[in-house]
Each structure stands twice: as structure tokens, then as C-alpha cells.
Amino acid sequence: ERSAGGRAGWKGLRVLVSAGGTREPIDAVRFVGNRSSGRMGFALADAAARRGAQVTVVAANVGLPAGSGVEVVAVETAAQLQAACDAHFDACDVLLMAAAVADFRPAEAAAHKLKKDDMGDALTITMQRTPDVLTGLAARRRPGQTLVGFAAETGEHAVDYGRRKLTAKGLDAVVVNDVGKPGAGFDVPTNEVTIVTTSGERHVALASKGEIAEAVLDTVDAVRAAAPA
Ligand code: CTP
Ligand code: CA
Prior knowledge:
Blueprint: E1 14-20, E2 24-25, E3 31-32, H1 39-50, E4 54-60, E5 70-75, H2 78-89, E6 94-97, E7 104-106, H3 116-119, E8 127-129, H4 133-139, E9 146-153, H5 158-169, E10 173-178, E11 190-197, E12 200-208, H6 209-226
Parallel strand pairs: 1-4, 1-6, 4-5, 6-9, 9-10
Antiparallel strand pairs: 2-3, 7-8, 10-11, 11-12
């Protein structure tokens, strides 16, 4: 039996998860994407549902089945992910923002397929910054909501970068993922993370994404228990 949350300890809680990676169109057939598979986000959604929560997952290009009782909202682009998260945020008690959201998108997407012979030897695509969805949601959070961000970093300063995001984005916790380490990161069933909160940090050694998800949910329980009523 798990600690604070218990098996059905999240009954009555509404949880919004974002998962996967957004794709930004270049033309009718091509996109700029990233390597996120959605496994971590879906593991979080399944774990929250098993604890009894009502779970909605905004899934960007995830080719995985969701656990029973998990509502899936499928999206492709950062703009679509933002619209879906905006629509579901006010009703949620816990936000787990695991999606890899594109930081830039092609400024213009061609409605037709680009032909290489029309483009010459080199193709330059002007990219435009996308809005930071999580920062936007945090700016309108209400008391009682718990917000968790995810940070994919590389190198020795990974945890410092994650802690900076905790403050800059106004979050309760950031799950820092050193994607340079073997067994951590993209398209693998395991992960190794450091969960950073305002009161400290917890390292979770290499484990299945399901086990990592349980550690994240335990941190949410601790944050919510410590929060002023
Ligand atoms: N995020 C977001 N909207 C974006 C970019 C990121 O909501 N346009 C969210 C991610 O879902 C994640 C958190 O912000 O929960 C941190 O994402 P990350 O890519 O690690 O950080 P960035 O702030 O984008 O900074 P950088 O990529 O430069 O490290
Ligand atoms: Ca980013």
C-alpha cells in the first residue's frame, strides 16, 4: 500500500496531464517535432486514475493506449495543446505538464507540399517562438491548484536549470530529467529524475516510468498536505 495517497486517495481530485510532443507543420506533409513518446505522461495519467482521480490527458501525437477511465484529448501542434489545456485548466486540481511543447514553429506553413527543386540547395525556415503554455496557466492559477512542470535537461547543471524553471514559471514542483543519462529520457520504458520543490529535492533512481509516476504523485500529496488550507 502506498503512503499518503493510498489506493483511492485521489478520489474526487481532477487531474490534467499533458503528454507527448507537439509537431509544427512546415508544409502539407512535413513537420518539426521532438523525441517525446508520451510514455511518461501516460504513466502519470494511469497512476492518477488508479488512485481514484478523474483524469484528462491532452495527448500530442501519442501512439499509446491510455489506461481505463482516462479521458484523452488528442492534439498535434503547440497551439492546439494550448487551446486544450486552457479549456481544461480551471476545472483541474492538479496539473502535470509532461508534454514536450515546441519552443519554435515555422513562421509560415505552406498549404501545399514544397517541391525540392523549387527550393534550391539549401532551405531556410524562419521559426517563431511559441507561447509558454505552462507559464500562462500558472499566471491564472487559483488557490488549491497544484502545478508540476517537467524539464528535460542535459549535463551537470540539470537540477539547477530545473530549479530556475520552478521559480520562473511559478510552479510547486519540477521533475528534472537528465536526458543525457542512459535509461533516462525519450522512448525508453525507464527514467531517472530529480523532483525539485520549494522545500527541497528528491532523487529517484533509475526505475520504470510507472514507478517514477508514483514518486511524482507522492510529491504532489506532500505539497498539497503542506499547503495552507
Ligand atoms: N512548456 C510549455 N510551453 C512551452 C514550452 C514548455 O508549457 N512553449 C512547459 C513544458 O511542458 C514543461 C516546462 O514548460 O513542463 C519546461 O519545459 P522545458 O522545455 O524544459 O523548458 P523551457 O521553458 O521551454 O526552456 P528550454 O527548453 O529553453 O530549456
Ligand atoms: Ca523547451
